[in-house]
Amino acid sequence: MAISPELLEILACPKCKGEIHLTPAEDGLVCEHCRLVYEIRDDIPIMLIDEARPLADA
């Protein structure tokens, strides 16, 4: 099961509190402002700044 649109509407980047969106493969959440990707594991977004990947690596 993917992240629901309702959940996406309320989730925010933990670093800048900005808007996030799904990656094209739906395996992560992207913050364009911070250039970070937060991985989704077992349908759970891992919203930890220390575990985010730089967008260039995504």
Textual characterization of the structure:
The protein is mainly beta and 58 residues long. It has a single domain (5-57), classed as N-terminal domain of TfIIb (Single Sheet). Helices cover 10% and strands 28% of the residues. The protein is built from one helix and five strands; from the N terminus they run αβββββ. Strands 1, 2, 3, 4 and 5 form a five-stranded antiparallel beta sheet that branches. A hairpin with a 5-residue loop joins strand 1 and strand 2 (28-31). The radius of gyration is 10 Å and the shape is globular.
What's the overall geometry?
globular
Helix content: 10-25%
Mean pLDDT: 92
The low-confidence runs, each spanning 5 or more residues with pLDDT under 50, are none
**Secondary-structure arrangement, i.e. CATH architecture:** Single Sheet
Q: How much of the polypeptide forms β-strand, as a percent range?
A: 25-35%
Which features characterize this protein?
single chain, 58 residues, mainly beta, N-terminal domain of TfIIb, five-stranded antiparallel β-sheet, 5 strands, 10% helix
Short description:
The protein is 10% helix and 28% strand. The protein has one helix and five strands, in the order αβββββ.
